[in-house]
C-alpha cells in the first residue's frame, strides 16, 4: 500500500532567515496546481486550476489568511498578497502553471514564503514489519521530483531501555545510507529512519518512519551461513557469480495445505512472511551475486523488502508475473558489472500460439489436441535478458530464467515448454545477437534422469522417450526434438535442491553454454546433516523448501 506522508513531513525551512516555505506542485497533464503553506498556524493545501489567473489565486489566499482559526466568518483586515520573482512582482494575469516559479517569494501580509516548485519529495517510505539481527534493512522508497541516489538516509536506534516509555524520545544515530544491518546492540530496540529526498541540487522535506516493533534476535544458525564464508568477496573479474533460487512464494507458504500437509514440521512463525523475508534478505545479499535468478517471487517481494535491499546493494532487477499464480520470476544483474542491452520476456503458451519462430512446433502439436490444450492452460513465463559486460562491452550473454510446470506426471508438458523456451533463446542468442553464450537458470521441476535434463544437455530427445507418455496415452505426443546449444549443468546434479518431508530431489539447474563459458567455482550446498537439523525445509534456519545454486563462471 502506498503511503503519503503529509502528516510526517518536517516543516523545517531552508536556510533563508525570516522566510517560511510554500510548496507548489505542478504536474504535466494535471489540471490542478497544489499550493501548500502554513496560514494562521494551519497547514493548508490549496488546489487551483492550472489555467486560473494568478490574481484570482492570490485573492483566494488572502481570503483564507483573513479567516479566524475557528469559524468561517472574516477575521479582520484582508492582508495584502503578492508574488515576486527576481525582484519584480509577477503580474496577476499570468496563469498559475507558469506564475509559480522556483525561488519566487510570496508575501502574505508581513509573512514571506520561499516558493519551491516541485521539490523532491517521498511518495512512499516504508520499512518491513519485522526485522531480525543480521538481516539487511532498506526502506521501500518512491521519490517524486528526485532520485533515490541523491536522497539521504539516516538510521537511529532507540536509546536506553526500549521497554520504558520515557526512552522513546531518545534516539542515537547508528548508520547512514539506504541499507542498515542491525547488530546485537540493536536487539530489543526500535529503529527510526530519517530520510531527506534530493535531486542532486535541491533537498525536499525530511520524512521519518519507525519500525512497529523492536529488533528481534536472529536464529542461532542459518543454513546459508557456512556458504557465506565462501562468498565474502565478489567473483574476481572477468568472472561473474550466478545464483538461481526458488524462494518459495508467501502465497504457498501461508496456505493451510502447507501448514498441515507439506510442511507440518515447520513452526508457524518460520512460515510467516516477515520472518522468511528477513532470512531471505540475509541469505541472498550474502551471496554477492552478479547474476541472480529467482523463482516464486511475488510483486510485493520484488518491489518491497527484498527488492529494495538488492537495489540498494547494487543490483538492478526485472519482474515477470504469472497472472494465474500471482507470483513469478525476478532476474537481477549487478549494475557495475553488467548493462542491460535488451529484454525478451515471454509467456510460453502465448509465444507458442502466436510467434512465427514457433511455427514448426505449433504445426507438430496440431496432431495432439489434448497436449495443446494442457500447454495453453499454463501461465509459465520465461525471462530473457541480453547483458553486456561493463568491463568489456564486446562480451555479451543471454540470461534466461524460468519455472516449469510442476506436476509429477507433467514430463510431456515440460518437454514442450522447454522446446518453446529453447526455440525462443535460439532466436535471441543465434539470430538477434549471433553467437552470444546462454546462461539458463530456473526451477525446471525435472530430475537428472528426466527427459528434460537429457534434452537440454544432449541436444536431442527421441520420440520414444518415456516422458512423452508421462500422463497416459491420452496426452502422449511422441516426437523427436533437437536444439542447437551445447549446454551443461554448471553445478552438476546434486542429490537434491528441494527437500521437504516426503520428497527430495534435484529440480534446479544453472545451464551454461559449455563452448563459451567455464565454471570457475561451485559454492557447495549445505551438508545433509545441516539440511535435516530441523527435519526438512523450510525451517527456522532456512526460508525456502529449495536450496540456492551458487557458482562463479567465466568467459573462455
TrEMBL record:
GO terms for molecular function: metal ion binding; poly(A)-specific ribonuclease activity. It holds the Pfam family PDE12-like_N. It is found in: Mitochondrion matrix. One of its GO terms (biological process) is nuclear-transcribed mRNA catabolic process, deadenylation-dependent decay. One of its GO terms (cellular component) is mitochondrial matrix. InterPro entries: CCR4/nocturin_mRNA_transcr, Endo/exonu/phosph_ase_sf, Endo/exonuclease/phosphatase, PDE12-like_N. Residues 119-216 form the 2',5'-phosphodiesterase 12-like N-terminal domain. It comes from the Eukaryota. Keywords: Exonuclease, Hydrolase, Magnesium, Metal-binding, Mitochondrion, mRNA processing, Nuclease, Phosphoprotein, Transit peptide. Residues 244-546 form the Endonuclease/exonuclease/phosphatase domain. Its cofactor is Mg(2+). Belongs to the CCR4/nocturin family. This is 2',5'-phosphodiesterase 12. It comes from Hymenochirus boettgeri (Congo dwarf clawed frog).
Amino acid at each position: 500500500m502506498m503511503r503519503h506522508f503529509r502528516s510526517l513531513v518536517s516543516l523545517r525551512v531552508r536556510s533563508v532567515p525570516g522566510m517560511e516555505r510554500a510548496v507548489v506542485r505542478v504536474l504535466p497533464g494535471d489540471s490542478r496546481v497544489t499550493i501548500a503553506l502554513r496560514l494562521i498556524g494551519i497547514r493548508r493545501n490549496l488546489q487551483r486550476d492550472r489555467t486560473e489567473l494568478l490574481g484570482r489565486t492570490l485573492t483566494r489566499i488572502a481570503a483564507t489568511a483573513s479567516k479566524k482559526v475557528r469559524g468561517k466568518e472574516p477575521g479582520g483586515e484582508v492582508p495584502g498578497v503578492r508574488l515576486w520573482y527576481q525582484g519584480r512582482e509577477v503580474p496577476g494575469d499570468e496563469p498559475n502553471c507558469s506564475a509559480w516559479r522556483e525561488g519566487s517569494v510570496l508575501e502574505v501580509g508581513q509573512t514571506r514564503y520561499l516558493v519551491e516548485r516541485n521539490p523532491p519529495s517521498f511518495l512512499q517510505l516504508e520499512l518491513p514489519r519485522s526485522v531480525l539481527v543480521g538481516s539487511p534493512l532498506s526502506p521501500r522508497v518512491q521519490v517524486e521530483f528526485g532520485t533515490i541516489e541523491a536522497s539521504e538516509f539516516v538510521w537511529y536506534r532507540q536509546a536506553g531501555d526500549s521497554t520504558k516509555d520515557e526512552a522513546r524520545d531518545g534516539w542515537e544515530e547508528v548508520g547512514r545510507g539506504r541499507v542498515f544491518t542491525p547488530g546485537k546492540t540493536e536487539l530489543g530496540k526500535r529503529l527510526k529512519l530519517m530520510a531527506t529526498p534530493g535531486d542532486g541540487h535541491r533537498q525536499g522535506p525530511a520524512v521519518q518512519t519507525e519500525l512497529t516493533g523492536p529488533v528481534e534476535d536472529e536464529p542461532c544458525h542459518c543454513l546459508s551461513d557456512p556458504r557465506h564464508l565462501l562468498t565474502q568477496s565478489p567473483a574476481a573479474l572477468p568472472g561473474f557469480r550466478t545464483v538461481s533460487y526458488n524462494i518459495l512464494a508467501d502465497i504457498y507458504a501461508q496456505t493451510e495445505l502447507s501448514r498441515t500437509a507439506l510442511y507440518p514440521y515447520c513452526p508457524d512463525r518460520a512460515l510467516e512472511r516477515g520472518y522468511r523475508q528477513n532470512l531471505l534478505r540475509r541469505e541472498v545479499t550474502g551471496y554477492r551475486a552478479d547474476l541472480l535468478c529467482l523463482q516464486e517471487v511475488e510483486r510485493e517481494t520484488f518491489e518491497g523488502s527484498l527488492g529494495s535491499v538488492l537495489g540498494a546493494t547494487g543490483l538492478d532487477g526485472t519482474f515477470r508475473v504469472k497472472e494465474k499464480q500471482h507470483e513469478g520470476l525476478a532476474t537481477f544483474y549487478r549494475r557495475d558489472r553488467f548493462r542491460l542491452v535488451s529484454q525478451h520476456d515471454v509467456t510460453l503458451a502465448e509465444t507458442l500460439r502466436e510467434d512465427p519462430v514457433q511455427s514448426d512446433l505449433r504445426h507438430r502439436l496440431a496432431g495432439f489436441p489434448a497436449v495443446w490444450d494442457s500447454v495453453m492452460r499454463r501461465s509459465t513465463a520465461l525471462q530473457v535478458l541480453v547483458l553486456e559486460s561493463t568491463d568489456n562491452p564486446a562480451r555479451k550473454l543471454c540470461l534466461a530464467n524460468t519455472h516449469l510446470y510442476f506436476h509429477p506426471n507433467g514430463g510431456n508438458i515440460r518437454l514442450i515448454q522447454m522446446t518453446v523456451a529453447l526455440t525462443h533463446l535460439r532466436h535471441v542468442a543465434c539470430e538477434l545477437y549471433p553467437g552470444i553464450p546462454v546462461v539458463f537458470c530456473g526451477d525446471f521441476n525435472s530430475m537428472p534422469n528426466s527427459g528434460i535434463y537429457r534434452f537440454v544437455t544432449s541436444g536431442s530427445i527421441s520420440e520414444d522417450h518415456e516422458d512423452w507418455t508421462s500422463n497416459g496415452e491420452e496426452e502422449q505426443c511422441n516426437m523427436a526434438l533437437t536444439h542447437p546449444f551445447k549446454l551443461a549443468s554448471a553445478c552438476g546434479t546434486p542429490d537434491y535442491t528441494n527437500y521437504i518431508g516426503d520428497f527430495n530431489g534435484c529440480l534446479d539447474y544453472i545451464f551454461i553454454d559449455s563452448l563459451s563459458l567455464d565454471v570457475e567455482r561451485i559454492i557447495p550446498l549445505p551438508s545433509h546433516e545441516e539440511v535435516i537439523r530441523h527435519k526438512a525445509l523450510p525451517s527456522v534456519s532456512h526460508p525456502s523448501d529449495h536450496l540456492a545454486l551458487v557458482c562463479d563462471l567465466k568467459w573462455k
